[in-house]
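Sharing in case it's useful to others searching the archive later.

Someone asked me privately for the predicted structure of Histidinol-phosphate aminotransferase, so I'm posting the question and my answer publicly. Question first, with the sequence:
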Amino acid sequence: MSSIDTLVNTIIRPDVRAIAGYHVADASGFIKLDAMENPYHLPHHLREELGRRLTDVALNRYPTASYAGIKQRVRDTLGIPAGYDVMLGNGSDELISILCMACATQDRRAVVLAPTPSFVMYQRSAQFAGMDYVGVPLQADLTLDLPAMLAAIAEHKPALVFLSYPNNPTGNLFAEDDIVAIIRALDGFGLAVVDEAYEPFAQQTFMHRLPEFDNLVVMRTVSKLGLAGIRLGYMSAAPQLLAECDKVRPPYNINVLTQAAAEFAFDHVEVLNQQAAALRAARADLMAALAALPGVEVFPSAANFILIRVPNSDDAHLKLLSHKVLIKNVSKMHTVLTNCLRITVSTPEENSAFLDAFAASLAS
Ligand code: PMP
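And my answer, the predicted structure tokens:
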């Protein structure tokens, strides 16, 4: 073994060495339906105007510390109740990690709990912060197992419960009453983080319910709305709570280009909302077309992706790759997802190219 290998094995944590990195597939030349991106650009005239704005951004200066411009626009656009603050992250990924770092304790291992399968970064961020992770399996119909969730909360007293609403990778919205029961069960010792990354496609939110619960955090992102490349997420909660989380936030975590682009995009948010509406319509069409294919089970979706079950997911995934279509094979994530595939809803053209390739791969 060379000395660098010895060094790595000595200094890098064994639990980090044991895992595979967050895998991002190389999509060049593919129809990319694996990552829940919005397929639409901003219209050309807006991109030109944004280009002119970015010309004036002072790249030599650190961003302004308060981020007042974006925060005000987030407040106005999202309807954050008076008295509640906004915290910005380099994607909501960073906010998940900040919450874990702020809640991880040295003396006893704090717990992160989430239904499983759900967004993988809940578990990863908990692990990296030195917390224990408890996953509570969804039921076979992919709904929350509320009694099991409540029992696990009573047993483990988690500091954080992450609820993806709608859930990734299943696409469904958990029952609002179940979420309320979970928030109430955590009262006094745990935070419920309702992760509304897919809100533009669900149009259901807990934002207006913040004043009902001291322990509620509502998280959003611009990624699924159409700006995945600029990396901006935000969460809203009681100011006392966010003031503590803010101490963990790396300084200047939102760069000046993101700051300028986000302010510009919020000023034209109606364009992004129209694109989301088009994707909701395309989702209905794609679900109907998939449901008409023999042997394909289509799960309900309130997101910009659709979960399906096929007779042989590995085979279908490989055949789609050979047709240059990239979707996500989630069948190995959990036993409830056996033979399941996740498809991001895209433009009508890309959706029908996918459908043609998929129908051909089922037939062959
Ligand atoms: N939450 C959920 C439920 C997600 O699915 C994702 C991304 N796939 C994220 C958060 C992370 O989003 P961002 O791009 O803002 O980091």
